[in-house]
Amino acid sequence: MLVLLCTLSVMTSCSSFVAIERAAHEHSDSVFIGYLKSKNTPYSQNNHVDILNGAHVKFDSLLADIERAEHHIHLEYFNFRNDSINKVVITALAKKVKEGVEVRAMFDAFGNMSNDSPLKKKDLEAIRAQGIEIIKFDPINFPWVNHIPSRDHRKIVVIDGKIGYTGGINVADYYLNGIEGVGEWRDMHARVTGEAVNALQKIFLDMWEKEGGGRVEGEAYYPQHTRKDGADVAVVDRWPRRTPESIRHAYANAINAAKDSIVIVSPYFMPTPRVRNAIEKAIDDGVKVTIILSEKSDIPGIPDAVWRAGYQLMKRGAEVYMFTGGFNHAKVMCIDGKFCTIGSANLNSRSLLYDYETNLFIFGKEDTRELQQYIEQDKQRSYRLTKEIYKKRSCWRRFMGWLVSLATPVT
Prior knowledge:
The protein has a single domain (2-410), classed as Endonuclease Chain A (Endonuclease, Chain A, 2-Layer Sandwich), CATH 3.30.870.10. It is built from 15 helices and 17 strands. By secondary structure, the protein is of the alpha/beta class.
């Protein structure tokens, strides 16, 4: 059955998509921007992006922005864990409610249920009693299996329609303190100001209305943005019924546009055929491909499949590094030193074929250079994968990698 699903996935994707080719004379960023515009992707100029290197930086920035909020604060998270950082955030939000600021929060019911410190009914009642509107995305009800396919994996915050956040960092202590048996939980996020915030706002408000929070509209939520310089930003959002192919096609086309270099950091690296084929073609075309993966994971069996996927691309010619500093949960990519992406989407079929996801694609050498510097620091905490290292893994671990890889279309 799993083999059949794999085959069907490949056949379907091959019949529905034609990737852009590496243009002979155009720069990779120009080629990819042309692709995004052809798909009516929200694209804007004159944004300012701060790359937030780690959870401590993200929460320091977020809490400072919450403190300065004047009209509204919107939060959408896969995992809103009932722990100490949650309490800090809720306390800050409750303070703003008392000052007359509107606060709306949404979290994924499965993400909440699957952690060991979930928000329970009494917790939600206590939060609502403080004036914070908070709802679940797709509550898990009988028959439970009906709720498995598409979850809200986004991490979005919008403040006053002027400041936006997105990336890989949920509201959970382990992003700050690590996790037993895994170690440090490494991740990245982005803060953006400018017109790109409007796209993040629309994503949130559409989901808020869809999940029964009511329709919210008006100029106060979409203020005018007057920056005159800064980065171009595209907001690529995956909404399963509206834009089911958006993120995997964006990844594949960004990779296909590359001429010189591709740098990828991904935690659950089991790319779908579309993305894997793009990476392989880039290698064959002489593009330098560097991939940083993690030795460890929070999900049993996944590291074996990640090792296998990395090894296969290493044999093809990619430089693959295994991160040893804990679990690298960042979802980032840089192309030719010209543009990059930060977001919630993993390079696996769970993110690319099923979930609600959002990624920023950022065009600018300075932002891309900064992100590459952070990736280089991670590379210094990694070792390069070789055939000899992979062959030292036990036959059982290699078998498990093959077995889990068969489930890629449903993982």
